Amino acid sequence: MNTGQILIIEDNLLNLELVTDLLEASGFNVRPAVTAEEGLRLARECLPDVVLMDISLPGMDGLRATEILRADPLMQNLTVIGVTAHAMKGDEEAALRAGCDGYLTKPINTRTFATTVAQIMESAKARRSSQ
Ligand code: MN
């Protein structure tokens, strides 16, 4: 079981609920936000282990929000996972360039989602501690 805290920034409420259920069932402690602005505020407040960042958000998008997170010295070590709506190569590259450690595509695979999140988190932590 995982015990990390995950901040989910997702404006689609059905997706937010689904992802929250999957991650909680896997032992993660979940904090939800529906806009980038709310997510940035919560990230500073709770310093989560992982931010699950929807790239397509109303107002500020997830790429810009990731850049802002990465510019904050307090948040350079957390794991950011971009979530893109389509399996488009350009989106994935843009997510990594903005500072994401990895990305997942929607529609999500409900059987593997929580495990994949945990794997990206562990490999990002291992990479940072070896630097
Ligand atoms: Mn969205």
Primary descriptors:
single chain, 131 residues, alpha/beta, Rossmann fold, five-stranded parallel β-sheet, binds manganese (II) ion
By DSSP, the count of extended strands is: 5
Mean pLDDT: 93
Topology as H/E string?
A: EHEHEHEHEH
Task: Give the CATH topology.
Answer: Rossmann fold
Taken from the alpha-carbon principal axes, the silhouette is: globular
Stretches with pLDDT under 50, minimum 5 residues: none
Give the structural class.
alpha/beta
Count of helical segments? 5
Task: Give the CATH level 1 class.
Answer: Alpha Beta
Arrangement of strands in the largest sheet = 2-1-3-4-5
- Amount of helix: 40-55%
Strand content: 15-25%
Bound molecules: manganese (II) ion
Q: For the report, how would you describe the main beta sheet? A: 5 strands, parallel
CATH-level-2 architecture: 3-Layer(aba) Sandwich
Rg calc: 13 Å
Q: CATH superfamily membership, which one?
A: Response regulator
Number of domains: 1
- N/C terminus separation: 27 Å
